[in-house]
Structure formats: C-alpha cells, structure tokens
Records
---
Amino acid sequence: FGVPGMAVYKRTVDYCKEKGLTVIGDVKRGDIGSTSAAYAVGHLGKVQVGSRSWSGFHEDFATVNPYLGSDGVKPFLKVCKEEKKGIIFDLDGVIVSTDKFHYQAWKKIADKMGIEFNEKINERLRGVSRMESLEIILEKYEGAPLSAEQKQALAEEKNGYYVDLLKTMERCDVSEEVVNTLKSLRRKGYFLAVGSSSKNAKIILRQTRIEDLFDAVPDGNNITRSKPDPEVFLKAAEYIELLPKQCAVVEDARAGIDAAKAAGMMAVGIGTATEYDKCDRKIKSFGELDQIF
Ligand code: BG6
Ligand code: MG
C-alpha cells in the first residue's frame, strides 16, 4: 500500500471489521478516491460498503462514509461476507491438459517394467496422488515385490519425465476459453482457487503464466490426504476465507467430485466426470461456467 494511504487504509479495515465486512482487495499507490472505486468495480464487478452497493461507477462512492472520504482513501473492495463466493478448480484435466503428460510419463515406467498400462487404467489415476497412482499401476506387475525405496525411485523417475514435459508448456497451452472465463468470473467478484493433488501445480501455473488469475493455490504440497479426501478443497476455502458451502468445485475426476461433495461444496463435472451421477452440474465446455455463475 502506498505509504500516505496506510493510516486511512487501517481505519477502513477497522470500519469493515466493525461492520462485519471483509476487505478483499487493495489498490496500488496513486489509485485514490473515485478512481479507486472504478478500479474496485472493474475488478469485482461490484462494490459494497455498508448497505449500499454499486455495480457501476458512481461519483458518490468516494463520499460514502467518513472513512472513505475523497482524500485519497483506499478503495475498497468490500463485499458482505455472505455475498462472497468462491470457485475452486482442479488443475490437471480442467485448466490444462496435463493429464496426457501424466499418461506418457507413467507409460514409460510401465513399458520399462513390462507392466500392462493403457488409457483405461490411466483414468483411475485422475486426481489421485503420485504414490497412489504408482500402486494402481503396480496392480498389474508380476515381478518380485518391490521395496519402499524401489517404489520411491520409480515415482521419482516418472516425475522427472513428467516435469520435462511440463517444461515444454507455455501460455498457449491454456485455451483462450479458459482464460476468458476465469477473467470474467473474477470480474463478477468470485474468488478463484486451484485445488490440486499435484505437487507440480505451481510449476504448471508459472509455465503457462496464469498464476495471477488465482487467489490461492493449495496443492499436493499442502495436504496429507489426496482426493477423494476433501482436504485440498477445504484448504482452498480456508485460504480464500470462505465457508465450504460458499464454494463450488470444478472437476474432471470422480475422486475430485467425491472430494467436493465430502467437503460440502457444489460439484461441477467436466470431461470424464460428466459420466458420474454425483455431479451437481455437468458442463461440456469450460465457458459454460460463465452461465452457471
Ligand atoms: C493430479 C492428477 O492432479 O495430480 C493425478 O490428476 C496425479 O493424475 C496427481 O497423480 C499427482 O501429481 P504429481 O504432479 O504430484 O505427480
Ligand atoms: Mg483432474
């Protein structure tokens, strides 16, 4: 925050606390008064202060309360707590098509070990952790039992192949449809998070340069139990400061739909998850989210 605005900002935060409002954004130095309000409206689609709300730019925003005077107040992205809503996205297979890279990397391991592995078995790996995926692949292994160290080495080898494939990713590996929909949901005021079982989620977001579109990214490094356990989604809700019931999940995996329901969240299925009757909603393409939310 710009130094001159700090005290005003603090007063505003106190005001919001007192009124049960949540401050959900900040404005850069130089964004003052009504300019800030316009920024807030542009970012969230809506600004609410006390009982008054604006969904478009209004001259009178800057004079709405004593703490939001025209003297350079931090603008104020505030929405009533109960109005805050979040959408949590699975990453692999929803935002990006890294599921095909997982398959290719596991296939190398399976071929090397003479294990039968095909796309059907691969479906069972969606949403589950790396070590659990390995156990599923080893169901078809007929050799001598493997030690924990050998399994660890196989998982690491697979991850090496996988990360090499991830390094080839760039911005164009996220479709325009996905980017535009995420931007639109942000403009409408939704908080967006990623909820992924992958320990590589942040690499993927960095490679594709979409990390700024999300408010929080809990992933395989932040959890001890992977989907269908709800842990990663509950973490996401916690990070964006929402109750589970205020969140929806978008998933391509059965395990993810189960996790969303176990978390008490609305579950939107896309891709293979649409064959699963536990979905609350099913979408054929990502852009349909703009109609649901
Ligand atoms: C999930 C994928 O997102 O991440 C799974 O759907 C994968 O297939 C899991 O096993 C773990 O990924 P990583 O990158 O930590 O090996
Ligand atoms: Mg997935």
---
Amino acid sequence: MPTRIPGTVAAPQTEVVDLLTLDYSYAHLPDRFFARLEPTPVVAPRLIRLNEKLARQLGFDPGALATPDGLEILAGNRVPENGEPIAMAYAGHQFGNFVPQLGDGRAILLGEIIDRDGARRDIQLKGAGRTPYTRGGDGRAALGPVLREYIVSEAMAALGIPTTRALAAVTTGETVWRETPLPGAILARVASSHIRVGTFQFFAARGDVDAIRSLADHVIGRHYPQSVDAANRYRALLDSIIARQAGLVAKWMLVGFIHGVMNTDNMSIAGETIDYGPCAFMDVYHPAAVYSSIDTMGRYAFGNQPRIAQWNLARLAETFLPLLADDEDAAVKEAQAAIGMFFARFETAYATGFRRKLGLFQPHAGDLTLAQDLLDCMGRNSADFALTFRGLCDATVSSEGDVSLRSLFDDPSALDDWVERWRHRLAEEGGDANARRVAMRAANPLFIPRNHLVEEVISAAVNNGDFRPFETLLAVLSAPHEDQPEFGRHALAPRPEQIVQQTFCGT
Ligand code: AMP
Ligand code: MG
C-alpha cells in the first residue's frame, strides 16, 4: 500500500470533488489501528439537512450531495468503489475508570478530504451500524441526539470555538430502541481528525510502543507539523497538544459550556470539542452546575473542567513516556514538566478571553480577581450567564442599562459594588465607550443553544416530524452575537416551567 504523509499544508482542492474521491491516511496506518468494514445499509434514508456552506468549504458540490446518490453515501448505503472505510480503535478512562477497549462502536470513518484551505478533515458517519467495537450497543443513533449534536456543534463553530462539524443529518427510516422506540438517524461528522487521548491509551495498554510512535508521528504530520523541528519532537508534540486543549477549555469556560462527558476517549488530540452527548450551555451560572444525567458525582461539573482536562492530559503524557526519553526517570520529568504547563496556559487564555468579555484591553494584575468576583456574585444570585455578560455590554455606554442587568440578580443591589469597581477600572483604561461596547458584544453572545430550545426542537422533530424549529434555531445560532430582534424569544432565559434540569446522552 502506498505510504502517504499526511500534512496540513497540502494543496487545497481547487476543483469540486465528490464523496467518492476521499483520501485515506489513517486507514494506511498499521492494521491494528482499526477494523475495516462498511456501514450497514438502512432501509429508507431521507435527508434532514445538508450543511451547504460547510460542504462548499470542504470542496464538495452541495447540489450533488443532496441528490439521491449523495444521500446514499451520507446514509452509509453506498461507499466509494476504492473506499477504505474503517472503525477506529481506542480505549479510555470513563468517569475515571480505565476501559482498555472502546473504539468506534457505531461510527465509520469514510475517509478524509483536503479542504479548500488545504487542511485534512475526516468524514465520519455516526450511527452507521455495528462494528467489532460495538460491545452491547446497536450501532445506531436516535434522531434526538443527532439533532442535538448538529445544533450544538454548529453553534460552537459560530462562536469561534474549535469543534467537530455537522455536514449532514439523515433519518434512516428504521426504529432504534432506547427506553422507547425512536426514529433512527445518522450524522455525517467532520473533524480535523478523530484521534483521541484514548487512541494513545489503547496502544499503551497493550505495551505497543511501535504503535504509539507511529500514531505520534501521524499526529505530528497532521496536526502539529512544527514539532518536527524541535530537539525533542515528542515533548514538543505533547506541549502543543496541552496548549491547544488548555485554550479550548478556556473557551468553554468563557461561554458557559459544559461538555458533560470529558472521558479521555472524548478528548480530541487536535484540540476540537468532540462527542456532544449530555452537554449543556448553562442558564444560571454556578460552578457546580451539572446537567448530565449520568454524572451523578459531578465529576464533569462546569467548574471542574480545567482540572479534568489536566487529568486527562496527564493520562496522555503517561502514554508518551517511552517516546520522551530513553531513561525512565528523565521521561517522567519531561512528562511532568509538560503537564505542569497546563494551568499557566489555561489561565493566560482564560484571562485574555475574560478581559474581552469585560471590555478591558490592557492587562492588569487584578483582572482575574475582578472576573472571579463577578462570577461569585452571579453564583450567589442565580444570575443568567449569557444575559449578564450581554447586559454588561450596554452598561459600558451608560448606566441606563443597569436596571435590566441588575434585574438578573436575586438581590439587584448585590451587583452594585462590583459595577462600581468595574467602571473605575474602565475609566482607567480610557478609550471610546461605543467602540468598547461593539468589542464586548463580539465576545458576549446573545444566542446560545439553551437546553430548553434544543429540547423544543427535538420534541417537534421526533413527535411531529416537524423540522422547522430545528432550521430556525440553526439560523439564529449562526449569528450568535447579533441582535436579531425577530428572534428575541430565543435569547431569553427559560421560564421556570421550561428549565431543563437534566440532559441525556441517549446512546
Ligand atoms: P460515547 O458515550 O458516545 O462517547 O460512547 C462511548 C463508547 O460507547 C464508544 O465506544 C461508542 O462507540 C460506544 N457507543 C455509544 N453508543 C453506542 C451504540 N448505540 N452502539 C454501539 N456503540 C455505542
Ligand atoms: Mg465518545
């Protein structure tokens, strides 16, 4: 088989390609990295939605993808003639417990495409049938979780947060059984790659150092090519993965996103948000907020996410030990030094982002304290996360906006001291208030995929076959920082009877 070196700097597609001309760098890694198999066909696929903009960015002709032939591919009923579809092997720590074999139990990697920017991207079908890694499951996905992943991942992309993308969603015409019979669906997902912390763990658990090295080399070529030039390329790789992950989690913390299942198999080596299960955007801020029905101990609570990311990366660093140095003690020192950098990197990204949210452009020593004091006050007063920050944008121009901002707090006067300190700090900065307001609005979204809206969309689709609310919500979330007065309802916090207490992965 030809060896192809994957790279992020390949020539971009200039001509329109179709889903039948994919690339297969991962499928050319050693056989023990995956299982070769085709998706299991479905009886009556129907297109719910094609992401035309993304399709074009990938170099596809959206018109061709939407034809019956295109639909057959998106549903897994047809694979490219010389295609090399695979299910990837991986392991992972699930809620702290190591499972040596997980793998794509219901996802099939169709192949890769070099997009218009020259970046290599995976095309995967999630819900495409059983695989050798399926264990107890049915290999399928239900419509609700597919719509949820479509909405939230596209919302994240619009917010500028690295994420896997949704290329298309189809219904299968088949029933899947969860607690009740549900319509089946398949998500065509796009990722920089689907390599996870758990992919390295899979080989580490088997003592397969050759595989770890091959995987690391693949990751360097594909995601971190600059590491090649470092004196210790694997240490440089580890540092880069840690830096990207720290930056990613900082972005989550700045928009109130709770991943919900930060198992090591759900952490992407490329630094993208991946595997949207029981995830949630917080309404009311609280550091201990947990929505996931399966996270009974609150391990993946909002405020725990940076610590958990570091824990996961420590598990990754352990798998790197044989690569970091010949001598074990030296390798451990390298790993510890890399992991030790996580919080500094996280704080830098978080502080930079938080300053933007508060309209501060020049870094001051007390900025993180100012930010934390606001969060503490929000937590004590059940303030809505997104609306509080959006309210601050107007409050920067005049104190007229203070009334609606204060009304978000159980005790409106609780915020007064903080606002005074903030205004004092803004006065020190100088600058034009209107320009600041514009900049702040770009850092403080008005529209987030609130749980009650997502539930509303899913319920209309699953119970009534009505996909219009899905389309509307997607359109609103594609411009999260704009006012869109005609969709004011979608900006509101849930009324008490609308509050969603728990989210389910529904797998
Ligand atoms: P997740 O919780 O979605 O990250 O999945 C954890 C593991 O369970 C992965 O190995 C999945 O492939 C597998 N899995 C989840 N749902 C199913 C399903 N319906 N059928 C087969 N495998 C599944
Ligand atoms: Mg997963």
---
Amino acid sequence: MRSSVYFYPTLKETPQEAHVASHRLMLRAGMIAQVTSGIYTWLPLGLRVLKKVENIIREEQDRAGSLEVLMPTIQPAELWEKSGRYHDYGKEMLRIQDRHEREMLYGPTAEEVITDIFARFIKSYRDLPKRLYNIQWKFRDEIRPRFGIMRGREFLMKDNYSFDLTPEGARASYQAMLEAYVKTFARMDVTAIPVRAATGPIGGDLSHEFQILAETGESEIFYDPAYETLDVNSVTLDRLQSLYAASDELHDPENCPVPLETLKTARGIEVGHVFYFGTKYSIPLGAYVMGPDGKQVPVEMGSYGIGVSRVVAALIEAHHDKAGIKWPESVAPFKMGLLNLNVKNSACVACCDDFYHKLLQADVEVLYDDRDLGSGAKFADMDLIGLPWQVIVGPRSAEAGMCELKNRRTGERIELSLEDALNRIKQ
Ligand code: ATP
Ligand code: MG
C-alpha cells in the first residue's frame, strides 16, 4: 500500500480527551475516529488490526472444536422475557421499538438467541457436545464510556456457547476454552492471566476473567508468580485451579494460599470472560435433549467471551513507547514500512519502487511512504503507527544499493544491501 493513496490521518498533538496511551495512540495513528460517545468508526489502519485479532481468535476457536455462526445484532425482547433477564439488565440495554411497537433490543450478549436456536434444532444427546460462537457487534449503554474503544458502548465481541449433556462434559468444554484462550493471547504476544471471578448478571458457579497486565487496567488482581512460567501448551483447568489468581472482589488476604511476600499484585485489562452456568438458560428456554435412557434432560451450558475490539487497545497498552505503538508481528497492520526519504530524487524513487514491487511479489505486507514530506515527519509517523520493521532509503544509500533496516521493538538499526534486507524480511 502506498501512503500517498492510503488514509491514516495521523495527529502530531495529543488529543485532549484521551487519558490512556491506547486511546491517545489510536487517535494519533488514525486508526479510529469517534462518531459519538462510546461509538467509533474503524479507519483502514485500525480495521486491519481488528481483523487480524479477530482471525487469530477465530482460528483458535475453530481449533477447539467450535462452529461459527452469525447472530443478529437486534433481538426480540420476548426471548429475554423468557430467561427473566429483560427487566434485570437495566439501563445498559439499548431498547428499541419497531414500527409495530414490538419491543426489540440491541444485543449486549446472546445467550437467549443461541439457546433458542439450540432448542429448536438439537434434540438428542447424540448431537452433543456442541460449541457455537459468533463474532458480532454488541451494544451496552455503559454509564461511563471511556478510554476510546477500551470501554465503548458498541464493541466487537467473540461469544461462544457450549452445550453438553453432563456437568463433566461442560467442564471439558470449559477447559477447552481456557486452553484456546491461553493460546490465543500467546499468539498476540501478551500474557493474559485467567483470574477467578465473580459471575455477575450472567450467573453461574465457575468463572475466570482473562486479564492482560497493564498499569492502566481497570481491575486490580492478585496472582501467584508461577503464572509467569506457565507452559501455554499444557494448561489444564486443574492446573489453573491449583494456581491462585483472583480479582479484587474475590481476593481475601486472610485466606490467601500464596504467602504475602510472593503474591503479586497488578492492574489488568479484562479481555475475556468464561462462565459455566449449568441449566440457567436451558430450562427457561426449553433446551432439552433426549438422554441415553430416553428421558428429557436440560443441557449444561457455558459461555465464553472475548472483547475483540478491547483486545486491540489492550495490546497497545502492553506494547508501546513514547514514540508510538510497537505492534507484535501477528497483529501488525503491515509487516513493514518502506520509507523513501526523498521523492524528488529519481534514483531514490526508482530504487524504492523496485524494492516495493519485490515485496509485493513476495507477499510481504508493506506500507510504502512515498509522500512528499520531510524525513522527520516520515520517521515520526512510522514510529507512531508501529510497524515491526522499517526499511529506510535515502538518495545516498539508494546510489549504493543500500538501506537501513530498523526493528521498531528493539530500536536496533543496521545498514545492509537492499538484497540482504529483502531476504531477511522474506524469512
Ligand atoms: P467489564 O467488567 O469490563 O464491564 P463485563 O464483565 O461486563 O466487562 P462480559 O459480559 O464478560 O463483560 O463480556 C465479555 C468481554 O467483552 C469482556 O471480557 C470484555 O473484554 C468485553 N467488553 C465488555 N464490555 C465492554 C465494553 N463496554 N467495551 C469493550 N469491550 C467490552
Ligand atoms: Mg466480566
């Protein structure tokens, strides 16, 4: 992509309304633009990151034996009256009337819709277990939307729902999701600690929140330092239950199994939440299957959310410096930036154009800064948007067939031939 035709309206100044790094940097990098309180447009650069995050989440959900569906954003109140949550949900729910004066709502979550689908189509224990998920926009009329998309009103969520015949089966589904989550966040280069949590309005008796550690996190968490050495490929529910991690609400210093000297305290951003809630929705919504003995049994359910859009902000909180964002490669909007430091010098242009085409041929995602701007502005923009690699070419280096390769995360810069740079990047 050439910068000259792309659209990323970067800002030099810090926007007044932004109080945390991720909000500031997303606005300054031209990733998002506010439409109204808690509601944003994702601009091209931000959308590329959102899609990458979404895809990693999707791949791990699929790998864990889940099936993707797409439920609507608008739901009928009727289903929520059946589950008994319509009145409890309160002002966070955006309620709408259609032209026939039927009560509708913009879904804040989808337990009711999915349980109803299950109830209508799945009738036998032979079809279990089932794990159905979607990645869809949700709306919660938050009392205090803040920190940009971190706590928006409209936000993208991955929500998965598991259906099992027995509580043991439901625990296996729960464990499969825990494993999938640990792998998902490891692929994005962040540690997300599964913290025991209160179950809140969704209800249930087994629940973990996934917290990405960041100073600006809204939650205070307490955890066993053993989490820092956890092998992501061998996480089990038992192993997690044997390690202590609790939210502020649940942490009891008197009865904490970890000695105070070793216990770690940190702030975290809740990026995911998993619940096991048994038959709380299956009974009122009629999700029963025929068991092996021919009797009707309500299915055992769990639900598993990830705040996809919030993850984008949390990744920035975990990976940035004064100059801007430092994207992990797996979610970077482009793998590299190519900077032509002088677009009026024909040798430099020819050299950069040639290099750009070779990158495209090699399927390297590249943002080519071919704008007529001073080099200071180009360096600042590139550091701000945080692509993992930068290749910098000026008239003198172009003449010699050389460039500078910069690693945004380590700050390391080396001079090498354009050919060597290409080979390195291809790896
Ligand atoms: P919070 O405690 O942050 O309000 P929640 O407990 O209400 O979150 P869940 O119902 O567990 O959230 O929703 C699943 C996930 O959706 C959360 O873990 C979080 O990552 C994300 N999420 C919830 N509310 C918002 C929001 N207003 N903006 C962005 N993401 C959100
Ligand atoms: Mg929660």
